[in-house]
Amino acid sequence: MSRQVTVAGDNRYCQARLRAAKFNEEFSNRRTAVEHLPGVSEDSLKKYELGINNPPNSVVALMADAYNAPELVSWYCAKECPLGAKCREVEDAPAERIFVRLQNELPKVMESMNNLAKIMDDGKVDLSEIMLLQQIKDNFIEMYRRMADVLTVIYKAERSKEF
C-alpha cells in the first residue's frame, strides 16, 4: 500500500523528489533518495521537505542534479537564498514557449545595443541619457533572465533526452 505525502506535499523539494520518482523508484521515499544526495541524512531531507530548515545551496544543487530539476536552483535563488533577490523562478511552461519568449526579446536588445552605442560615442552620459540607460539596463536584465530560462530547459533536456 503506497503512502501519500501529506504535510510536505506542497514543499518544492518534496515535489521535485516525487516527480523524479516517476522515473526512478528510489526517489519515492526519503530513505532511498538520500543515497543519491551525498552528505544528506534522511532526517535532514525530512526537515527540508517539511520546511523546518532551509537547505544550504550545495544541497539544493545536489537535489537539482539528482532529481533532474534544474528549475529548483532558480526557485531556491529567488525564494530562499538571501543573495538571490534579483533572481526569479523559472516558470513551469513548455520549452517552446520559453524559447519563443527569448526570441521576442531580441529586437528590444538590438535596439538597446544601438542606443547604448550612441550614448557611449562621446564617452559621457548626460542627464538626458540617464533614463534611456535605465531602460537599456532593464532590457538587458530581461534578456539575461530569458536566457537563464532557456539554459534551464537545455540542462533538463540534456539529462532527460527530451524537451
Q: Could you give the order of the helices and strands?
A: HHHHHHH
Strand segment count = 0
What composes the largest sheet? none
Class derived from helix and strand content: mainly alpha
Apparent shape: elongated
Number of helices: 7
Q: Count up the domains.
A: 2
The first-to-last residue Cα distance is: 33 Å
- The radius of gyration is 20 Å
* Rounded mean pLDDT score: 90
Low-confidence stretches: none
SS strand fraction:
under 5%
Give an overview of the whole structure.
- The chain has 163 residues and is an all-alpha fold.
- It has 2 domains: 7-79; 95-160.
- 63% of the residues lie in helices and 0% in strands.
- It has 7 helices and no strands.
- The protein has helices spanning 12-21, 30-33, 42-50, 57-66, 71-79, 95-120, 127-160.
- It is elongated and about 65 Å long.
- The model has no long low-confidence stretch (mean pLDDT 90).
